[in-house]
């Protein structure tokens, strides 16, 4: 422990990098711990078509690299390390990273959310051997093979559509007949000649042999009847859970673990702010995360000034 930082940003992605950009331009000399997998969920997104300023679209990883470069140009210090814990019981706050403790007057949490797994029988054994949560990462491994996607939201429809670039057939499985996906994303999947949609189906168990995944037993939740779907790849897209475990309950969260804002972007702890998908239970868009990151940085600047820090 040595100097006390004005602000430490935990996590990257659109919220983190935008917060870093604004904090750096405000001359706060922000320090960011971006995590081992810096860039957030957009590092797993192939094409972003709805972020203003990119009329032809842009790849998620490319956008994150550009955001990072822009923030670093103004002075954001980035370390690609995971935060192990924080102590916000007294100021200056403590942030522990790989056994080293950093002191800070304020914190912006931008850790986002991570994929939820089904945790059905046979799943753990086949993670990385046919079962994935990232079509962008693993889709190319299934060229000319039949695969499935589980889910009913935008992510599931996007994953299914993306996988048609490689797979010979994609089956989209959803436990209900009503989809949460936006109309444009659903229709894009539903009207694709390589995609078959199976509603009122949920995975009961996974099937495999010595080579890897061979299929899934699907159950109809209405009557318990089952059928076997033969696929060599499966992609789970049923949502995310916020990454807040490192906070150890020191900041108020809702029943699902999402951080709760108390005053603008400030949390239940004065001087601790949060932005992006670690807070957002409704929109979950790159543009809203970036906007919240901007708000958090401006709130930090004002709070530091008001508290003469």
Please, could you describe this protein's structure?
It is a single chain. The protein has about 300 residues and is of the alpha/beta class. It contains seven helices and 17 strands.
Furnish the topology, listing elements before pairings.
Blueprint: E1 4-10, H1 13-25, E2 31-33, H2 60-73, E3 77-79, E4 85-87, E5 93-97, E6 100-109, E7 113-115, H3 123-126, E8 131-132, H4 135-138, E9 146-150, H5 154-163, E10 169-174, H6 183-190, E11 195-199, E12 202-209, E13 212-219, E14 226-230, E15 233-236, E16 240-242, E17 272-274, H7 286-306
Parallel strand pairs: 1-2, 1-6, 2-3, 6-17, 8-15, 9-10, 9-15, 10-11
Antiparallel strand pairs: 4-5, 5-6, 7-16, 12-13, 13-14
Helix pairs in contact: 1-2, 1-7, 5-6
Explain briefly what this protein structure is.
The protein is an alpha/beta fold. It is built from 7 helices and 17 strands.
Q: Give, in order, the helices and strands.
A: EHEHEEEEEHEHEHEHEEEEEEEH
Category from helices, strands and their pairing:
alpha/beta
How many strand units? 17
Largest sheet properties:
7 strands, mixed
Contiguous helical run count:
7
Mean pLDDT, all residues? 95
Strand content: 25-35%
> Whole-Å distance between the termini?
18 Å
Shape: elongated
Integer-rounded radius of gyration: 21 Å
Low-confidence region ranges: none
Residues in helices, as a percent range: 10-25%
Looking at this protein, list some descriptive labels.
5-stranded parallel sheet
């Amino acid at each position: 422990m040595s100097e006390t930082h004005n602000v430490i940003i935990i996590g990257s992605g659109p919220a983190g990098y935008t917060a870093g950009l604004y904090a750096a331009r405000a001359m706060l000399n922000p320090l960011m711990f971006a995590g081992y997998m810096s860039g957030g969920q957009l590092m797993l997104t192939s094409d972003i078509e709805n972020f203003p300023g990119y009329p032809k679209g842009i790849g998620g990883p490319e956008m994150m690299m550009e955001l990072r470069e822009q923030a670093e140009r103004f002075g954001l210090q980035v370390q690609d390390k995971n935060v192990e814990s924080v102590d916000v019981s007294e100021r200056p706050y403590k942030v522990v990273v790989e056994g080293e403790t950093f002191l800070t007057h304020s914190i912006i949490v931008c850790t986002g959310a991570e994929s939820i797994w089904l945790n059905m029988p046979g799943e753990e054994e086949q993670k990385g051997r046919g079962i994935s949560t990232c079509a962008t990462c693993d889709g190319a491994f299934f060229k000319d093979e039949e695969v499935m996607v589980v889910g009913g939201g935008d992510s599931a429809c996007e994953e299914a559509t993306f996988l048609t670039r490689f797979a010979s057939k994609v089956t989209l499985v959803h436990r209900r007949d009503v989809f949460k996906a936006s109309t444009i994303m659903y229709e894009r999947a539903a009207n694709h000649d390589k995609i078959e949609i199976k509603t009122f189906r949920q995975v009961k168990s996974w099937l495999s042999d010595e080579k890897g995944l061979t299929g899934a037993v699907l159950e109809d939740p209405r009557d318990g009847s089952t059928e076997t779907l033969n696929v060599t790849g499966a992609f789970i897209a049923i949502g995310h859970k916020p990454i807040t475990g490192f906070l150890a309950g020191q900041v108020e969260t809702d029943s699902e673990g999402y951080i709760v804002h108390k005053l603008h972007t400030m949390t239940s702890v004065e001087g601790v702010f949060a932005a992006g998908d670690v807070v957002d239970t409704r929109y979950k868009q790159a543009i809203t995360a970036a906007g919240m990151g901007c708000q958090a940085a401006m709130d930090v600047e004002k709070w530091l000034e008001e508290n003469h820090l």
